[in-house]
Amino acid sequence: MAPLNDPEFGFCRDCLTAQASAGRRCQQCGSPRLLRHPELYRLSIAHVDCDAFYASVEKRDNPELRNKPVIIGGGKRGVVSTACYVARIHGVKSAMPMFKALEACPHAVVISPNMEKYVRVGREIRQMMRDLTPQVEPLSIDEAFLDLSGTQRLHHDPPVRVMAQFSNRVEKEMGLSVSVGLSYCKFLAKIASDFDKPRGFSVIGEAETPRFLSDKPVTMIWGVGKVFAATLERDGIRTIGQLQTMELGALMAAYGTMGQRLYQLSRGIDTRRVEPDGESKSVSAETTFNEDIGTLEELVPILRSLSEKVSRRLKAADIAGRTVVLKLKSRDFKLKTRNRQLADPTQLADRIFRTGLALLEKEIDGTRFRLIGIGVSDLSDDGRADPLDLVDVQATKRAVAETAIDKLRGKFGNNAVETGYTFGKIRQRTRPVPDEID
């Protein structure tokens, strides 16, 4: 049997058996999912991305959907939050307008997002990550970086085998699959996790990086979006290999601080550390309307409902926010954001709503909107949140009433109690967009 640390032969991702030869299938279980790489046992930065997460959770919870195309989203004016791989074969993509998605895949099953469930499942998977290392940096509900440097003594295994065990554990215990990228830095680990999805596990080593990147498009570099890519295209730069031939001074002269990033990342230089303290900076919820609306009568019930969603998320996470942020998108897709800082952090729906309402009233000028969102930023723990207001007695009474409502909803469900702002007013008007934790 080959020694555990022999990268020439590697090991099987399914049964973890070390391989004694360069065969195509595992000598123990026959699986073709073998991992081999010259730097296999020296790399320790991982990026984990759950595969088609929202859709996969729904398929797991409803086996009848297993072989069907599933789209998470909804409403004729909405967009696709995510789509399963069956739907993607038909051309459905995230952020695609729903009507286009249904044109591409008319037989798809469309499911409205259930963010509370997805967050709950995401937290369970994240805890599994933290069982491996405290160095976990969440990027979203379903993806994170891990730094497993120095954990071999703890796990009695190199990071690559630890991550293979983690992948298998998620499948066995959660009924979901993840894709893993492993490298020596965050930039390349994230690139690697996109290969061979779903259930992928890809490795990019340091020695191969310049050659690996040379023929890749510049859009693979973190921070190069469509607009900046068009600028580079006008300058005749299409591939990362072209950037590798350019001097730092020339790139910075042409593109400022972004030029330094282009120089470094094109050469695989990424000194960013995995930051476990990269906590949420904001919590928000938003809704796209089925038809454009623009009056307070129409918008207030929706604003109240969204404020309650944000409040539930804050209370569940034991955090509060000091700045309330209102988001509006007009029919021509122009985005407005307005914010107001509070004297104290809050997690109360009533306070979020009333602050948001004051901001909204200033924007009512006949403009019709296709989206509204409300959220809070400047997050902290809830220890200093919502002190009793000795001046505004009514605010204190509303806070007490909200606590009573929360208890009823906790016992009987979120729809057990509705306020007069929302009762019977918004069910057919909106399509919820997944709540954001940024």
Automatic annotation (TrEMBL):
Mg(2+) binds at residues 49, 142. Gene3D superfamilies: 3.30.70.270, 3.40.1170.60, 5' to 3' exonuclease, C-terminal subdomain, DNA polymerase, Y-family, little finger domain. SUPFAM superfamilies: DNA/RNA polymerases, Lesion bypass DNA polymerase (Y-family), little finger domain. Its main location: cytoplasm. Keywords: Cytoplasm, DNA damage, DNA repair, DNA replication, DNA-binding, DNA-directed DNA polymerase, Magnesium, Metal-binding, Mutator protein, Nucleotidyltransferase, Transferase. The keyword Nucleotidyltransferase applies. This is DNA polymerase IV. The gene is dinB.
